[in-house]
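ugh ok so i messed up the first submission bc i forgot one of the chains. this is the corrected input, ALL of the components this time, i swear. 566 residues overall. if the numbers dont match what u have on ur side tell me asap before i send this to the collaborators (the ones from the other lab, u know who)
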Amino acid sequence: MATRQTQLLARSLLTPAVGLLFIWMIVPLALTLYFSTLHYSLLDPGSEAFVGLENFRYFLSDPAFLASLQNTLVLVGSVLALTILLGIPLALLMDQPVIGRNMVRLMVIAPFFVMPTVSALVWKNLLMHPVSGLFAWLAQLFHLTPIDWFNDVPLFAVILIVAWQWLPFATLILLTALQSLDEEQKEAAEMDGASAVSTFIYITLPHLARPITVVILIETIFLLTVFAEIFVTTGGGPGLQTTNIAFLIYSQALIQFDVGTASAGGLVAVVIANIVAFFLVRIVGRNLEA
Amino acid sequence: MARMATTRRVVISTAAAWLFGFLIFFPILWMVLASFKTELEAFAIPPSFLFFHWTTENYATVQERSDYFHHAMNSIIIAGGSTLIALLIAIPAAWSMAFSPTRRTKDILLWMLSTKMMPPVGVLVPIYLIYKSFGLLDSRIGLVFILCLGNLPIVIWMLFTYFKEIPRDILEAARMDGATVGRELVYVLTPMAIPGLASTLLLNLILAWNEAFWTLNLSTSNAAPLTTFIASYSSPEGLFWAKLSAASTLAIAPILVLGWFSQKQLVRGLTFGAVK
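and heres the new structure output, hopefully the right one now
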C-alpha cells in the first residue's frame, strides 16, 4: 500500500544518501575539471592562469603517460589472467570432495584480508629479497642465481604480489558459482558418456561465463588504481618501470605539486574507468530485473 | 547412478587442495613465524622454519618504539566510525528503496554503483586541496568522512539486497495491526535484518581497515592508521624484519578473524549481488 504519505517518507529517507553521494561525485569532479584547465602549481602560488587544454596536451604527450598507460594495461591484464587461470582450477579442486574443505577455504581466502601495505612489504622483504629472502634461498638450493626481483623484473614482482591478493576473490566467486551448478546436469552428461573434459567445456565453462565476467569487471575497477603496493615497494621505479597511471598522477600532484597536469591526468583516469564501469553496470542492471 | 566419491578421488583432491591452500597461505604464515624470531634469525640464510629461538620481544619493542597502539586506535576509530556513519545513512535509504520502490529506484541504485567506479586518483587533487584548506589533512575526522563516502554505495547495495529478501507480507500484517512506520522499523524489520546488517558491518569494517589509498595520501602521523604505519617500515630496508612482521601480524590479525567469519557474504557484497 503505497500511500502518498509513505511515498513522501520513503523519499525523505532516501534523500540524505543520494544528496551526499551526489555532492561526493560532483564537487571533486567539477574541481578536477576546473583545475585541469589552469596552469596551477603549488610551488608557484598566485600564478594560476587559464590555459585551456594545454594540460591535457602536456599530460598525454608526456612519454611518462604512454609508459604508465602501458604498465597499467600490463598490470591489469596479467593479474586478471593469473587470477582467472589459477582461480578456475583452484575452484574446481575445492568443489571436489575434500576433507576439511572449510579449513582450506580459510587458507585460500586469507590473502584478501591482508592490508595492501603489509602484503607488499612481506613479499618484498621476507620472500623476494635478493639475498635474504626465501625465494633467494630456494634458488640457491637448486643452484640457480637468485633473482633480484625489484631490479630485474620490477613490474612482474608487483604483478605477483597483486595477483596473490586477488586470487582468493576470483576463486571464491568461481567456487560460489560452481556450487550453484545443477549437479543433475553433470550426472546426465556423465550417463550419456561425456568425458570429464567435455563436461567441463560444454557444461561447467558456460556456467562460469557470467561469474568470470563479473570477476574481470570488478577486478579491473580495483586494479586500474593499484597504488599502495607500488608506493611501498618500488615507488614507481626503477625509472618508470612500475609507474601506473594512478601512481603517475599521485607523483605529479603530491611530489611535483603540478595541480593542473595532475588534474588532467585524473580526468583521463576517470574516462578509462568509466569505459569499464559501463559494462559492469549493464550486467548488474540486467540482474536487477530478475 | 549417483556420482560416487571414491576413496582414491577423495584422497587425491584432499591432498591437492591442502597443498595449494597451504601455498597460498604460506606468506602469511612465514610472516607470523618471522615475528617470533630475533632480528638476526629473521634474515638468516638458510632460514629456520620452526627450530629457532622463539621470542616475543618484537611485540614489546614495536609498541615501545613506534607507539603501535596509537595507530591501532586510529584504525579502529577510522574504520569503525566510517562504517557506523555509513550504516546510519544507508539503512533508511536501502529500507526506502527495498520497500517503497519507484520507477526510478533501479536507476538510483545503478547510479550509486557508478559513483564507486570513480577512481579515487581522479579526485585526489581537489580532495587534497580541500582538506588542506580546511585543516583536515592528517585528521581522523577527515579520513572517517572520506572512507564513509567511499564505501557508502557498497553499504547501500548490500543492505538493499538483504532487505529485499524480507517477505513483504510480514510488513503488511504489521501495518494491518496498526503498527506505525517507526514501530515497524524497530520491532519487525530490525530483528529480521540483523544478519544482513551484521555482514554488511563486517565487510565494510574490513574494507575500511585495509583501505590504503586515502589513508596513505591524507595521513602522515597523528591520524595515521595501521596501513600508513606499516608503510613507514618500507624505508629502513632489511634491518627490522622481525619487528615489521610483528607489527604486521598485529595489524592483520583482528581483521583476518573477522574476514573468516564474513567470507561467504564477501562474494555477495563485493559483486553487488551479481553472483549469488
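quick check: The longest helix of chain B spans residues 68-99. that seems consistent at least. The radius of gyration of chain B is 23 Å.
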